[in-house]
Write a structure and sequence with these properties.
heterodimer, A: Beta-Lactamase, Beta-Lactamase, six-stranded antiparallel sheet, 29 strands, B: about 120 residues, Transcription Regulator spoIIAA, five-stranded mixed sheet, about 30% strand, globular
Chain lengths: ~850, ~120
């Protein structure tokens, strides 16, 4: 039971406090409790409050202590129109008794709005009437307070909504600003996915973007949170037969194309945002459940879709940027390749220029000839040969620049063969406008130019000089052959002379003194000596330099005389030779054959210059070369020289030839008359002897050649080979071996007569047997060098092997067979050249035995 | 823009953040949170007192990580949250989804009680 009210009309203070308290409540529950308490206190009646249902302002629910329960006997009260109208004007009306007996309804409103219904049950029916005024006053005040509460709630709601809107706007702006500055699709994807996931508070999130290189393929670009099932890397989705527009966000229950719903289910996600840029599907964003597990709000999904749209432009830019980067990279690559190509071409060009330079610099004419037999290109040497410029020759037909006859005969065929692809090689003589008649070696190579037309490269080489050299070589080989022949003849000839000389001497020695025949015999001996000298000279001349490299002391006077003797025999009598020399033998260190050759050459030239008429003046004298004289030629050393001058009164040498007379093969003589080697060889010989050759010439008056050879000291002068010892007799035992019986007998005769005990053998093996039987029975062996089966030198070695101290004298008519150094090395002490005189043999024997 | 400093106190990964957590900076933190959530019992305390602003992308990091973390009985908690940051949690209705504490000590202490108060 509620206690009776303290006063029927509450004091104003209490009402003011009550209204103030009502105005400060912030929930309907508080409001209801306060009102109930106030009513109870001041009227003693219990009241219930009913509130209009959302969206149904005239349907009232009287909430109980538990949610869904009602304090009224019904859950909802819907006043019929007459009752409602009364309530709307603020009337206190009884509730329909069939619904709620003994209950009055008092409207709590503001203006024409019903904010609540106050239900007051009065079983007496009296209390309500008594307190009607108070109740209506409190209801009016409560209406004001409730309206205030509603307004405040509404304001708070609006404020929150506004705040959220501001937040959402800021989100959009910030997201857009962040995305727009980004040019990388993965980064953009990540940012938009995080922003959306945060806004929707949904997890996990996945973003797929279209693969630009494949139709209908979408690549996973970003993810947030970890889905239960690993999401696929790529999605295949075709938009065919799925015309736009599509919903901006799709959930399983929304109405959307089935393919999209299936995709969402397949991905095991809750919401799908298709990304549509213009008429292109560019990607998908998927999200799982909200973190709290509640449902997605339409508004947030709409904003989510709007946020996702902010990513479209940046993603487009990113794609463009990626294209740009690729294009840039491709451009750079092709630029690099281009540079490489240019460099390669430059290198090729440089090489080409180099080749061109090489061809141009060639002294051999080079020409490129096309199939019409016209010059395509020629080098300078080629143009020079034709006495023109390279550019003038280009395009000209070869037949026009050569002798037509020669062209037809020699050039046309090889050229055509070469153009047909054959390599040709031939020689011919061609008269060039500039060079005159030359021997040419031609090499023709087929060539395919840039236009792929057959061409021919012709390289011409002037072999005129080479040909001359070949001729000279042929000549010198001929000379060598003659020399060998002469040597062979000389051997036999010397043997014959030995016989004549020896027997003549023997005969002379047996003639009575004063006998008339003695004078004839002596003349015969002199003739024999001359003949012997002549043979010696021929041998000396024919012997090559190679056999006589050794230098030895020579008597210059003697060697000149020797040469002149030979020369005299070969020159016509109309030519006189005058030889002046002092008493001094003028010793030099030299090779006798070579010096001999020099004298011969100079004199032959002089004779030729004088047309074999007049006098050749030859002079030998010692000269002292002082500093002033030495300065005339760098080869001079100060000191004593022997000067040999050969002077003629011939045609002389023209000034322009003077510098070339010592060149090999330089000759003014007609073909076949001179080798052009004489002065060249002489120059070389004199040089090798440390000497100098000089020439003075006046055209029309004659020339004078002077040779200076260093003089050697007199003590090492020429060996006195010619000194004839007095015949010295002896009694020693001598073994003579010679295959020529005549000569063997002659030597035996001479030596027996001189008192020696002579044993002879005509065969080497027989001699050896003889010697081996009694080696101590011989004091000396005289051996002929040239014998069949065994040479004298070989026999000597056998003898010396048995008796090393045995003196041996080797004789030969052909000195080339052995040389003194070799003999010496074999232990052969002496050597005698056939033919020898009686006194020479006797002297040689005596020298060995003594 | 965003400075991240890690500190391990007992079993708790304490992450000190400074600056703003927006779409530009969030991916870095997201990577870190994903890494830390690989632990068998991830306990992460985010000190956000020097964070002036958190955008939805920042929230995205937390949302992306929290599912996996809580599945392993771990948690991601906050301390020193400023009102304007807290307001964003409120607006997104995440105010009471995450625990937040006035100070780091309290945050650490909450982990010491371990799992008793998981929402």
């Amino acid at each position: 039971m509620t206690p009776p009210p303290a006063a029927m009309s509450p004091p104003d203070d209490a009402v003011v406090t009550f209204v103030k308290n009502l105005g400060q409540t912030d929930s309907l529950e508080d409001f209801q409790n306060l009102l109930r308490f106030f009513f109870q206190k001041h009227t003693g009646m219990a009241i219930r409050l009913g509130f209009p249902q959302p969206d149904f302002p005239h349907v009232f629910h009287f909430p109980g202590p538990d949610p869904g329960q009602s304090t009224a006997p019904f859950s909802e009260f819907h006043p019929e129109p007459p009752l409602l109208e009364s309530l709307l004007v603020g009337a206190l009306v009884p509730a329909p008794p069939e619904l709620w007996p003994a209950t009055h309804l008092i409207p709590i409103g503001f203006g024409k709005t019903l904010l609540a219904l106050l239900a007051c049950t009065d079983t007496t029916g009296q209390e309500i009437s008594d307190k009607k005024v108070f109740i209506q006053r409190v209801a009016a005040l409560a209406g004001l307070a409730l309206n205030h509460l509603h307004t405040q709630k509404d304001l708070e709601k609006r404020k929150a909504a506004l705040e959220r809107k501001v937040f959402e706007l800021a989100l959009l702006e910030e997201t857009t600003a962040s995305l727009i500055a980004d040019l990388e699709a993965p980064s953009i994807g990540k940012k938009i996915l995080l922003s959306l996931a945060g806004y929707l508070t949904a997890n996990p999130g996945l973003l797929y973007l279209k693969d630009p290189s494949q139709e209908n393929v979408f690549i996973r670009m970003a993810e947030n949170g970890i889905p239960d099932n690993a999401p696929p890397r790529t999605l295949f989705f075709s938009t065919r037969e799925l015309p736009f527009p599509w919903p901006a966000h799709i959930q399983k229950h929304t109405s959307a194309p089935q393919a999209l719903i299936s995709l969402l289910c397949r991905m095991n996600m809750e919401v799908l945002f298709p990304m549509i840029d213009g008429d292109q599907l560019t990607g998908f964003a998927f999200f799982g459940k909200k973190a709290r597990g509640d449902a997605f709000q339409d508004a947030e999904l709409r904003l989510g879709a709007a946020m996702l749209r902010q990513a479209l432009a940046p993603l487009r830019n990113a794609a463009l940027f990626s294209d740009l980067k690729e294009n840039h990279a491709a451009l750079m690559t092709s630029l690099g390749r281009l540079r490489e190509e240019i460099a390669e071409r430059q290198r090729t060009e440089e090489k080409l220029l180099e080749y061109q330079g090489v061809v141009a610099a060639s002294q051999d004419p080079v020409a490129l000839i096309d199939k019409d037999l016209c010059f395509v290109m020629v080098n300078r040497a080629c143009a020079d040969a034709f006495d023109t410029q390279p550019e003038k020759l280009a395009g000209k037909n070869i037949a026009l620049v050569t002798d037509p006859e020669l062209f037809k005969r020699k050039l046309q065929n090889p050229l055509e063969r070469c153009l047909a692809g054959e390599t040709v090689r031939f020689r011919f003589a061609w008269s060039f406008p500039k060079w005159g008649l030359r021997h040419i070696d031609v090499a023709g190579y087929p060539y395919q130019g840039r236009n792929l037309k057959p061409q021919a490269i012709f390289i011409l080489r002037d072999i005129t000089q080479m040909k001359e050299l070949e001729n000279r070589l042929l000549q010198s080989q001929k000379m060598e052959a003659i020399g060998t022949l002469a040597g062979g003849i000389a051997h036999d000839f010397n043997n014959i002379l030995s016989g004549i000389l020896g027997y003549t001497e023997l005969a002379l020695s047996r003639l009575q003194k004063g006998c008339e025949a003695s004078a004839f015999m002596e003349k015969a001996i002199a003739a024999c000596t001359r003949a012997s000298d002549l043979v010696r000279q021929i041998l000396s001349f024919s012997r090559g330099d190679s056999n006589n490299q050794d230098m030895r002391p020579l008597c210059m006077v003697e060697i000149t005389e020797d040469a002149l003797k030979l020369l005299r025999a070969s020159l016509p009598p109309s030519l006189e030779i005058q030889f002046d020399h002092g008493p001094s033998p003028l010793p030099i260190l030299g090779n006798p054959t070579q010096i001999h050759q020099v004298v011969m050459n100079l004199c032959t030239n002089a004779a030729y210059a004088m047309d074999n008429q007049g006098t050749i003046h030859i002079r030998l004298r010692p000269v002292h070369v002082d500093a002033a004289f030495a300065s005339s030629d760098p080869s001079f050393r100060m000191g004593s020289y022997v000067e040999l001058q050969v002077r003629d009164s011939g045609t002389g040498i023209p000034g322009e030839y003077l510098s070339r007379i010592f060149d090999p093969f330089f000759t003014t003589k007609p073909q076949g008359k001179g080798t052009g080697m004489g002065l060249s060889i002489s120059h070389g010989i004199v040089g090798r002897h440390g000497g100098v050759i000089q020439v003075d010439s006046t055209p029309g008056k004659g020339s004078a050649f002077r040779i200076y050879l260093p003089m050697t000291s007199a003590s090492t002068g020429a060996a006195p080979e010619q000194i004839i010892h007095a015949c010295i007799r002896g009694t020693e035992r001598i073994l003579i071996v010679d295959d020529e019986t005549e000569l063997l007998n002659l030597a035996a005769e001479i030596l027996s007569e001189l008192g020696y005990a002579v044993t002879t053998a005509s065969k080497a093996d027989k001699a050896l047997t003889l010697f081996m039987e009694r080696p101590q029975d011989f004091d000396l062996a005289i051996l002929d060098q040239v014998m069949p089966r065994m040479t004298g030198a070989t026999l000597a070695q056998h003898l010396l092997a048995i008796r090393p101290d045995l003196p041996i004298l080797l004789c030969s008519g052909f000195s080339e067979a052995v040389s003194p150094p070799i003999l010496e090395s074999m232990g052969i002490r002496s050597y005698l050249m056939k033919p020898f005189t009686r006194s020479q043999l006797a002297g040689a024997v005596r020298r060995l035995l003594d | 823009m965003l400075e991240i400093r890690r500190q391990k106190i007992k079993d708790v990964e304490v992450i000190h953040l400074q600056g703003v957590l927006n779409a530009d900076t969030s991916p870095t933190l997201e990577n870190l949170l994903q890494e830390l959530s690989q632990a068998s019992l991830p306990m992460i305390l985010l000190c956000v007192e020097n964070i002036d602003y958190i955008s939805s992308a920042g929230m995205g990091c937390f949302i992306g990580a929290i599912g996996n973390i809580r599945k392993k009985q771990g948690d991601l908690r906050f301390c020193g949250m400023q009102p304007q940051v807290r307001r964003i949690f409120t607006l997104l209705d995440m105010d009471d989804f995450f625990f937040h504490f006035d100070s780091m000590e309290k945050g650490l202490a909450s982990f010491a009680l371990k799992n008793e108060d998981g929402p």
